[in-house]
Amino acid sequence: MADRVLVIGSGGREHALAWKLAQSPHVKQVLVAPGNAGTANNGKISNSAVLVSNHTILAQFCKDHNIGLVVVGPEALLGTGIVDDLMSAGVRCFGPSAKAAQLETNRSFAKAFLDCHGIPTARGKAFADPQEACSFITSTDFPALVIKASGQAARKEIIIAASKEEACRAVQEILQDKVFGKTGETVVIEELLEGEELSCLCFTDGVTVAPMPLVQAHKQLMDGDQGPNTAGMGAYCPVPQIPEALLEKIKDSILQPIVDGMRQEGTTYVGVLQTGLMRTKDDVKIINFTCHFGDPQCQVILPLLTNDFYEVIQATIDGKLCSCMPAWSENHTAVSVVMASEGYPGEYVKDMEVTGNFPRELGVKVFHAGTTMQDDKVVTGGGRVLTVTAIKEDLMSALEEANKGVVAIRFQGAIYRKDIGYQAIAFLQQSVYVSKGTSRNRCLPSPQPLILF
Asked: Where along the sequence do coiled-coil regions lie (predicted)?
């Protein structure tokens, strides 16, 4: 019997989740709350106005409308215990409990957890007292420091200090002046890690860990990693410059110990876990956690999943992930390019009409994020408006197709990058040169048929 599924959220991630779930023959309908213009009356997918912040009302809505599965997108709701409340009410929900989600929502907890279990991360410590924090700063040999407010993770609550004096001022502002409010009741002070940043995601049922292909996201606003930091301006997957041996090491020394450590502490982690990693000259180390699919990581990785997403989710909830392991295309590369509003990541322009020829060809998909419908027109409503994802046999072809899709879509003041995947492209070009025309990269095998869209 086919299920009705509710996806909670309104961004590009939620559009991608709904799109992938709708491909399953086990799914009759996907509701998205509140959704966006891309999830409004789109085949099996439609929007819902149910109040998701009230978990009692939400649980009753799910029962009244025969919702067999809820998939939570935003991290803020995970921290409020939405999974705990829905499961207690008899509604199946995919995601970690509030206690497990502390890996993301409480940086002090995450820091203590990593240190306790010997999982590689930056050197540092958490403090609630500004004087103790400054004493620690002056005693360190860190060339540069990162000051993180410990509460609900946000980019604005991370300060990179170039000097110890600057770091002490940041600590005073957070702990004493309360510039971040309750999120800054404690701070985590760490050494600034340098290297190549990666995203490693996995499904886990609390015991089994099923890694996804590595993703590299581009956070700076402009080409060449210039401009302000953002939530993500694009991504590509897989990451060819990371060897297979390192992928296995990440699973064995980072992902599995995290899941095992949480279970040992009495908090089974069930859902998707995304780790932000830094590949330093010495080792791969964790720099942050995301307790769900990231954005744009979700839009670039889910198109490469070749088996039934709904079945993988159900097996994960039931503790049977080992019997339904996710399978990924080995012969395709995905590239996602984000189109953002003028002014993003600061104050941005809204209500700009989105026009153009949305790509319909095989291998290109447009995921809506900050869009709404006004008078039967699609208009901008958020900082990041759309994500254009292309799937091809090699990285250069995927980037070319994604950029073609971006050019075909128009709204006033649109901002986007043209160089997504430049690190991998440089690596591939070097590999081809070294091997005299024979690429050794995993992203460039002989193509095999893969129907994605």
From this structure: none
